[in-house]
Amino acid sequence: MNTSVMLPAVHVRAPGMLTLVLRVGPAGADGDHQLATVYQAVSLHEDVVATPAEEITVSTTGPWADRVADDETNLACRAARLLAEASGTSTGVHLQITKRVPVGGGMAGGSADAAAALLACDLLWQTGLAREELGHLAAELGADVPFALTGGTAVALGRGDRLTPALARGCYHWVLGIRAQGLSTGEVFTEWDRLHPDPEPVPHIDDAVMAALISGDPHRLAEVLGNDLDDAAGNLAPAVQQVQQVLADSPALASLVAGSGPTVAALAPDHPTAVEIAETLRTARVADHVEVVTGPAPGARLLESVREDEA
Ligand code: ATP
Q: Considering only CA atoms, which residue is closest to atom 16 of ligand 1?
């Protein structure tokens, strides 16, 4: 470890994500399904401020703070511990998380916390690890963590961890219908297995999806959006279907469940229409929270490192 000047605080921001396409294949012997996914990072962020401490600890604020444990099971803590072991760091860290991504909402907020914690601790401890090594540690923490580091728009295969950046133009406007009570990813896949006993052997992403992303045209993207987990998430959380019914009568170009749900994402043609759709959802009272976001957003990044005299 490089023991030169240690920063008093490092502030990193990492994005939540939407799955623009999620195709599910059969489960392997380990129970994990083969997936083919197009991810897009969006402007609903997790902030992590890392400060030096004796131990590795975490505290959480923000709208979803009471839904996660502030102990060693927190993914941000696990990320810090893994990095300390990999880099031989003995200094601790306190991680202050501001949680804006719904917990168990299918937007990989926990993975965003892990990615933000990895980068923040790497900068705080000045480990000297290459970005590629951080990527390996990210993959050890969870299938979605590498994407939270890189952000943008990407295709993922395998368990969701074999990532390739996608050529994507434009800025997309999304409206999120969020349910306070999350869904367990494992339970959604169990329901999916029940509904689909004979899945496509190797899930893949159609060329039309890549062409739509290159066009930058939300109308073309709307035609190719799709999540195979839609019906399973809708069975477990009927609010998903209510949100989709309201969206069907709105100017939304298309809507789909985010990841394993229950968040529903609606694609709008532009920002003013996104605001109008959000208002429609709020008035219908079918979602607990409604957000307007844009994508693609950048991956985990340093916002500021607080100087000694400001700490
Ligand atoms: P997944 O990442 O499994 O697809 P998700 O995106 O629906 O799930 P997350 O909020 O990322 O949901 O996390 C799901 C679970 O991870 C929660 O049940 C929570 O107990 C656990 N967890 C651990 N640390 C965190 C964290 N920092 N933020 C959110 N969840 C965390």
A: 110
